[in-house]
Amino acid sequence: MDLRFERCRMLFGAEDFEKIQKAKILILGVGGVGSYALDCLWRSGVSDITIVDYDHYDETNQNRQIGAEAVGELKVNALKKLYPTITTINQQMDMQWVASFDFEPYDIIIDSADTTKVKIELAKKVYKKLIMSTGSAKRFDTSKIEVASIWKTSGDALARKIRNELKKARFNRNFTVVFSPEEDRCKDKGSFVAVTGAFGLTICSEVIKRVIKGK
To answer: What gap in Å lies between CA 123 and CA 114, rounded to an integer?
Structure first.
């Protein structure tokens, strides 16, 4: 028996762990949130993970992003060394990319991208499979993190923007969001790995629950 996942099998049971191993997951953006979602899924037995990102690591990433010691290297290349079973796509995600990319093969899509317009278009296209991260920066209280429908989010500027734009587009479907109503603690790009990482780990938990339920 492969001892690497022995304790996962003990927790989930053989049947549900087999579902986890067979899951096909897409992660959009592997920064402070996405890299922790990736790590959690990979350590939980998911091997068929595709990551999409186009950025290089710089020193300012080192306070919160897994793999960021590889300053100057493409994120997808550095993470492939850490998680050898993953598939990597070095691609900037824009509106055209969302329109043309084939999301059908994936069971669940994790949106931890930064661009608001992309997040909105993604929601319209793949809401049934989507788990979205909203703003995790400028906060330091992990106890405030919540999981809800986009329509039940509160206290987060990015979630509010997404809700408003979807209403304008007359889009009223539900999808899952990980968010925090904690008030901003600074004006700029301050971030704390306890929160960004906890967002990613919460997303991972939501993925596992959904895979086990078969939804």
So the answer is: 14
| Strand partners of residue 179 | 146
Fold of 3-213: Rossmann fold (3.40.50)
d(CA 214, CA 180): 27
- Rounded to whole angstroms, the Cα distance separating 156 from 110 reads 19
Number of residues that make up the chain: 215
Q: Among candidates 150, 146, 207, 147, which has minimal Cα distance to 173?
A: 150
pTM higher than 0.90, yes or no? yes
Cα–Cα dist 38/36, whole Å:
5
Q: For the chain, what is the radius of gyration of the CA atoms?
A: 17
Residue 17 amino acid letter? F
- pLDDT tens-digit series, residues 92-145: 999 999 999 999 999 999 999 999 999 999 999 999 999 999 999 999 999 999
The structural domains of the chain, with segments of one domain joined by +, span 3-213
The helix or strand, by DSSP H or E, that contains position 92, with its residue range, turns out to be: none
- Asked if residues 37 and 204 have their Cβ atoms less than 8 Å apart, the reply is yes
